[in-house]
Structures are given as C-alpha cells and as structure tokens.
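Hi R.,

Here's the chain you asked about this morning:
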Amino acid sequence: MRDLLLQCAGVLTIIVALIHGILGETKVFARARIEPERLRTLIRLVWQASTVAWIGGGVLLIAAPWMESEPARRWIVVTMACVFGFSAVANAWATRGRHFGWMMLSVVVAMAVAGY
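And here is the predicted structure, written out as tokens:
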C-alpha cells in the first residue's frame, strides 16, 4: 500500500505539472504584457522550469518504491514533500485560496507522506 501511495502521488504530481505548464502558456502568458520581450521570455522559461522540476519530482516518487534503499526513499519523500508543500502554501497565499493548484499539491504531499 505504501508503494502504491507513493506512485499515485508521483502520477498526480506529473498531471498537476502538465496542467501548470499548459495553463501557463494558454491563460497566463497569452494575456500577459511583459516588457521588454527578453524579460517575457525569461519569466516564461522560469515558469516552465518549475513544470519540469515537478515532473522530475513525480518521476522520483514513482521510482522510489523500486529503490532498494530506505534512506533514498526517505530523502525523496522528505524533499518532495517540502518542495510541493512550499508550492501549495505559496499558491494558496498568492491566489487567496481560489486556485485548485494548492489543493492538488496538498494531496500530493499527503499521499507521499502516507506512502513513506
């Protein structure tokens, strides 16, 4: 059951990351007016860097049950719980709780910790 929780947390993380990336491109940057253009590109790439990082975290959560190292499992879960927990709190604060992202990231944290 622990392994399944970690793997489900990883899959949910990847889904949330993909939604984050797609909504960023289609909703946020489609309407954003950022000048100069090089700053627009920089901000867009930083946005997508978090998407790629979350996907990487999801892959680690999926792979953790197959690692034969309990310390590796522990550090993956602790690190990802901190990253996604901070992201959830920041999202909830910045959107005043009106965005579903913080809820999904909170579920990821809960599942990962339960799977530890």
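One quick note: The radius of gyration is 15 Å.

Cheers,
M.
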